[in-house]
From TrEMBL, chains A, B:
Cofactor(s) listed: FAD
Keyword Cell inner membrane (UniProt): no
Coiled coil: none
Record-stated family: Belongs to the acyl-CoA dehydrogenase family.
InterPro entries tied to this protein: Acyl-CoA_dh-like_C_dom (IPR025878), Acyl-CoA_Oxase/DH_mid-dom (IPR006091), Acyl-CoA_Oxase/DH_mid-dom_sf (IPR046373), AcylCo_DH-like_C (IPR036250), AcylCo_DH/oxidase_C (IPR009075), AcylCoA_DH/ox_N (IPR013786), AcylCoA_DH/ox_N_sf (IPR037069), AcylCoA_DH/oxidase_NM_dom_sf (IPR009100)
SUPFAM superfamilies from the UniProt entry: Acyl-CoA dehydrogenase C-terminal domain-like, Acyl-CoA dehydrogenase NM domain-like
Annotated protein name in UniProt: Acyl-CoA dehydrogenase domain protein
Listed GO MF terms: flavin adenine dinucleotide binding; oxidoreductase activity, acting on the CH-CH group of donors
Residue ranges of every copy of the Acyl-CoA dehydrogenase/oxidase N-terminal domain listed in the record: 80-158
Keywords assigned: FAD, Flavoprotein, Oxidoreductase
Length: 584, 584
């Protein structure tokens, strides 16, 4: 089986030809030394780490899984060494704050590293993604003392981060959680409760494990307003920064899961564990959302990563595997990539993957602008767009990732169903990305009830206007007609339905009935936009690769975007038929 | 977790109120004593076997899996006892030929038993489905002597059947297979070769294992015309019918698979194993197709079975699980079945499942007519419709089954991803049904290149005319307007695209580019037809259940059938964009 090839050519194309990364970064004082060449050379090295160290561990990690020995997590053979090598090489600190020892590279570079990590070892990448999210939450909300103590070693990834939200009866509805925090009197608290589904809850890599735990103070009000956030370390930290005694917390058991077997997904028991308040009392969910938004984007990128590798491997297989007769009837057997129905499986995945990556890079650039631009209004505007796109990226990219993994598995036939080729693992692993960090239904509700309606709908309107402006800008070549027209039509559908969704909020079922279909319509339209931009930038006379991009855009316009017609129709049908059925 | 409830009420509704089973059977001399009451009482007993014996073994069978000990297959604890109880109770012989000891019940009853088997234990059901298919192939093609020796004990299921087709380099393209058969001189042959992915290849249930093996005679021509079919028993049979010495064949290894872990999927080595020719030399594929068509319908029913149980369990969970606020804002937490986006996951699965079952029963009745009607023309006409529907049922029902299992898993959130609730097993198990017995892409190619064009397109035209006739027959009540109109529109799309597909066969890529989208359009339209019939038969004043059927039909019309609009658009776009992309 062909090994994974980091999509560096695609990265270069996006940074240099589609988005003008250099100019965008030059406007951000923190990044004005970072150009595409630097970014690409970093990513090339990161790609070597992913293919050399991580990919070889992916299957054995799945087969071996994690286990609990005397209450301690044992990760699969090689995981610890890979993690230490990752930290040693500085990959964990790539986009971390310079102030706390990070390398301060832009978010754009970070998400492309995240993509390669997710392609080659999803379970491993999740350790690093959670650590970065925890660092971001602490950077935004923790006291100076907590930041000084914990941030440098979280940013280096020497210590790892964990988000501890879910309880058996409190998943989507965090207001129901019952974990308690009692003030000790010295500024610390004792945390008691049981959390489930805790990714990276513990490990055997050495270092500390920093849990961000949601719990209730005594006399806190019911619901989400009574929730506060606490930093709870596995090991208490001595004044000199060394690890002190073990905190009163333990892994109760490991979950047995469909996939991500190399990830220790823990039931965590906190038995009066010492912790410290992060942010204000009763504002725990607000502080946690800094981490959750970072993780939602990261999880979307997990979907992208699996899309990429599954599609790559299916294409390689379809070139090698010979079955059946050529279309003109003269040759047999032929590589199955000649068969139209096999091509459709490959092209749908490829066209979704490349467009998604474009949208990811665009969004990450908005994140860099939101974080670093000198003009406050520019920062705020970019931040609004990131907020709008966050649920779309999380849900649509993981849906596309799952669909692409399943379609890629189908290309291999029976060989896709057995372990040997690795395709079935991609399907099992990526499935979690549609569920955790807020299910994709929760993301869709966030989009229709908060993000699209934010600021009177002006943020969404600005996003749609940006798409329309690009579609009506003359392209550098004449090959984008089909994708421009198809995207224009999809955008018109999206705008019509948006007006309907906004107008329909009088019926309380309207938003929920629309949510997932609306999010998919939104995402497909945004992908069409990306193809229009990518083809506008690609001169097909220049290379095979650019000719291929034109072909993919035409395919996407003709054979994928028509989904939006059906979606509009379903959405305009409204909630009535959906609420009328008695399902008892 | 709620246990599975056999859908007996639905079976009764279909047999008595939608399809007039009694009158149809009365016209078939072989079945004129079989009425709906008898069928339902048989199915009620079968349901008890499935819930009492099989369902409790499903999860442990998955976790334990099969293993090979000293070359012998060991199935999970309890499987052997369940199999013996199944045979003892006579369930294996339900629809077998009376002449060879079967009970001779109609196919309609058989497929509903198959559904319940598939719901409660997919791996187990596959043993019985393959045995029946092998019996059917032998009944149609084997010599009298082979039939006398093997059929009674295959029909009782005391012995089991196996189809051995695939080789490492010959999957979809069986013309590439290389297994050899050398005549011994006494009428028998020595079979040599290695087959992979052999379901039920061996077991530890006792009895014989009868392999139907495709192989080439010496000097046979290349390609499919050189393939013959051989009966190769695990144990040679003595003249008195007792088991004699072991044949020269062995399990080389077991495949490690994504799911159906309780199924021993074998690599089989035939090392000069003794076998006998079934049917004519060089006509092995023809004989095998009797078995393959039976299995394709059976595999479609596997998809239906998983749809049913996954959706049932998700509905039960959604009633129990409380998260979030009611739509009117007054209650919290509420059962998640109140949330529109959860309802959509449940309703899509439920509306596809019930309509699919209707189509399965309709098709099985055509099979009974094709097998038993006294008028040859009636038999032939019914057989043509069965041939048309076979790829649709195999591919669409397994796609719907997978989609419904995934959507049902999503309803459970994180609980759907862990083993405990069983949902992730449904997803892993049903995934194989889209792949084996000819991938769903192969089914779609069969539909567009052979079935829809058969007899100048007259068979398909007759099917479409039957749908239109039902849509224009006045219904027994006024509740079917929405589903009739939506199905009428979908049918018009299907007919337009059919004309296009038939017309477009000049371009050799047209059929392949259309295949899978066309099959889905066909299947959704047929499901709409079924809902129109079911609602036409259901008076909502009579019961809650019938009110629910009207609601489901309206939901299907408004929120599922619009998919056909997008599909038509994609199909009319043709193959060009699909063939133009260079995927090297």
């Amino acid at each position: 089986m062909a090994t994974y090839t980091p999509p560096l050519e695609e990265y270069g194309f996006l940074l240099k030809e589609v988005f003008d990364f250099d100019q965008t970064m030059a406007a951000l004082p923190a990044h004005d030394g970072t150009d595409a060449e630097l970014a690409l050379s970093v990513l090339e090295e990161a790609g070597k780490f992913c293919t050399g160290i991580l990919e070889p561990l992916n299957r054995s990690g799945d087969e071996e899984g994690c286990r609990l020995e005397n209450g301690e997590v044992v990760t699969p053979r090689g995981t610890k060494e890979a993690y230490c090598a990752f930290v040693e090489a500085g990959w964990g600190a790539l986009s971390g704050e310079l102030e706390f020892g990070g390398q301060g590279l832009p978010r754009v570079v970070q998400i492309l590293l995240d993509e390669m990590l997710s392609s080659t070892h999803l379970s491993f990448g999740l350790f690093t993604g959670l650590t970065r999210g925890a660092a971001e939450a602490l950077a935004s909300h923790a006291s100076d003392e907590l930041r000084r103590t914990y941030l440098p070693r979280l940013i280096s990834s020497e210590w790892s981060g964990v988000m501890a939200l879910t309880e058996a009866s409190a998943g989507t509805d965090l207001g129901l959680l019952t974990s308690r925090a009692e003030p000790v009197g010295d500024g610390s608290f004792r945390i008691t409760g049981t959390k489930i589904f805790i990714s990276s809850g513990d490990h055997d890599f050495g270092g500390n494990v920093i849990h961000l735990v949601l719990a209730r103070l005594p006399d806190a009000p019911k619901g989400v307003k009574g929730i506060s956030l606490f930093l709870v370390p596995k090991f208490l930290v001595n004044p000199d920064g060394t690890l002190g005694e073990r905190n009163a917390m333990a892994v109760g058991s490991l979950e047995h899961k469909m996939g991500i077997h190399a990830q220790p997904t823990c039931v965590m028991n906190y038995d009066g564990a010492i912790g410290w308040l992060v942010g204000e009392e009763g504002r725990g969910l607000n502080a946690m959302f800094t981490m959750m938004n970072a993780e939602r984007l990261f999880v979307g990128i997990q979907g992208l990563g699996i899309s990429e590798i599954a599609n790559q491997k299916a294409i390689a297989y379809a070139h090698d595997r010979k079955q059946g007769r050529s279309l003109d009837g003269t040759r047999s057997p032929v590589p199955i990539i000649e068969h139209p129905d096999v091509r459709k499986l490959l092209l749908t995945g490829r066209s979704l993957t490349d467009a998604s990556r474009g949208l990811a890079v665009w969004t990450a650039m908005q994140m860099d602008i939101a974080a670093r631009h000198p003009d406050a209004q520019v920062r705020a505007d970019a931040g609004d767009l990131v907020a709008l796109l966050t649920p779309v990226i999380k849900a649509a990219f993981t849906d596309f990732g799952f669909e692409t993994a399943v379609a890629s598995q189908q290309v291999l036939g029976g060989h896709g169903y057995i372990r040997e080729w690795g395709m079935e693992q991609f399907v099992r692993d990526v499935r979690i990305a549609q569920i955790y960090e807020g299910t994709n239904g929760v993301q869709a509700m966030d989009l229709v009830t908060r993000k699209v309606t934010a600021k009177g709908g002006t943020v969404a309107a600005r996003f749609f206007a940006a798409i329309r402006a690009d579609l009506s800008t003359p392209a550098g070549n004449s090959h984008s007609r089909l994708i421009r027209e198809a995207t224009e039509a999809a955008l018109a559908r999206l705008e019509r339905v948006t007006a309907e969704v906004l107008a329909g909020q009088g019926n309380p079922a309207t938003a929920g009935a629309a949510a997932t279909d609306y999010l998919r319509l939104f995402a497909l339209t945004a992908c069409g936009w990306m193809w229009a931009r990518m083809v506008g930038a690609a001169d097909p006379e220049v290379s095979e690769t650019q000719r291929r991009r034109v072909g993919l855009a035409n395919y996407f316009a003709a054979r994928v975007l028509p989904q939006t017609i059906g979606l509009e129709n379903m959405l305009l049908a409204g909630p009535d038929t959906l609420m009328a059925v008695d399902l008892s």
